[in-house]
Amino acid sequence: MMSIEEAFMTTEAEEIQIEMVSEGDLCGVPILNMNNYYFCTVCGENYETKGELRKHKTTHNPPKIFPCDLCPKIFTKKYNLQQHVLSHTGERPHVCTVCNKGFTRKKYLNEHYLVHTGEEPFLCEICNEGFMTQDELKEHHIQHTGEKPYSCPKCGKQFATEIQFKGHYYTHTGGKAHECDICHKTFKNKTLLDRHYLIHTGERPHVCGVCNRGFTNKSTLDRHYLTHTDLLHDHYNNCIMEKQYVCEICEKTFYSPNDLEQHFLNHGDVAALISA
């Protein structure tokens, strides 16, 4: 049987403990009870570690939900909701200082800057080929591992990359796929296939008039021009891309003598008289 002194000491200890709980709860610090267990100040459950207690406390405080007012999507973080709303408003607050192109996220802007610098920071550890984004590297790496994660829902055939899968799937929709006989990638038309072959041959027919760097397609060359200053870009347009060849009949101008010659034929008899 507990003595009066022991009962008094126990009651006093409990009062001290309650006082500590109150102070600890206000500070957000996990509290140890008399048996050195961490206990929940909401329901009194005991736990051996702080981690277990924190995990338990989430049952009393469920995560906040941030719903989009414009569509049914919901988010667990306010920042993600704010970024998502930009897809509805069309706002692109992160603007490239070189070409003024806008992006919804800073991450996308940083990836875009690599177009101007030509930097390829993501290197394949197997073949050392460089890529501008992590996603491009991941898709490339599949070629080394032999993995084929893309499966055709029509016939079950599997493919290593999304590009290969899309090219194949096009054959099920009535189109005729054009397949590369070197790497077996498929394309929906011959023009795209011919452009792709340049990757294997190493040919770079589109050459920069400022630095003589070659590219496999014109769109890449156009993006490359942005790496040069506005002064060089303007100089290139004025000196190299000027329409120097003038039709004697209608004074229309052309970039090359071949273009002028083809145009000249449109004038028919008049052109023949001038040629004579």
From TrEMBL:
The keyword Zinc applies. It is found in: Nucleus. InterPro entries: Znf_C2H2-type, Znf_C2H2_sf, Znf_C2H2_type. GO terms for molecular function: zinc ion binding. Keywords: Metal-binding, Nucleus, Repeat, Zinc, Zinc-finger. One of its GO terms (biological process) is regulation of DNA-templated transcription. Coiled coil: none annotated. Residues 38-65, 66-93, 94-121, 122-149, 150-177, 178-205, 206-229, 245-267 form the C2H2-type domain. It holds the Pfam family zf-met. It comes from the Eukaryota. Signal peptide: none annotated. One of its GO terms (cellular component) is nucleus. Gene3D superfamilies: Classic Zinc Finger. This is C2H2-type domain-containing protein. The lineage of its organism: Eukaryota, Metazoa, Ecdysozoa, Arthropoda, Chelicerata.
